[in-house]
Amino acid sequence: MSAYLALAVSVGLLAVLDTWLYVGPLAALLPGLVWISFVAWGCFFQSGAGTKGLTTAIVGMTFGGIVGMVAVMLAGGPLAGLGIMAAPVAVGLGAFVICLAAKVPLLATIPASVYGFASIAGPILLANLEPQAALGPMVASVVIGAVFGYVSELLANALTKKSA
């Protein structure tokens, strides 16, 4: 089969499995967080796929999640006195840190960190978790998604017709 069709089949089949995990066996542990898995899966491919994409998606999104967690804590803590500006200032500081951190080779793919920064809001808002408690489910979903990306690439390669 063509590489194009093989990737479509691979991603389609694995998307069923990934979603089933989140509405079935992982529903209590990672409530409503399947979208983070899909963001990480996309990040895997955007970051070059293979081992590089896997590493970039996991490390970058995890770092972004940590920065996002700290931003939420700052907005509700030391910056709370800024009122309506607490969250915007905290987000601005987080974005600043993410951009500065891109000097580190493992964090050079800024979008990966931004995806993680945005993703931490999911478990905080959807599962009503404290920022520190939200990090674990978020990172678990990132790892699951990045691994699904890796597996979908392997499966697509296996399904692709090889020319002689």
TrEMBL record:
InterPro entries: DUF1097 (IPR009476). Keywords: Membrane, Transmembrane, Transmembrane helix. The chain crosses the membrane at residues 20-41, 53-74, 80-99, 106-126, 138-159. The keyword Transmembrane applies. This is DUF1097 domain-containing protein. It comes from Alteraurantiacibacter buctensis.
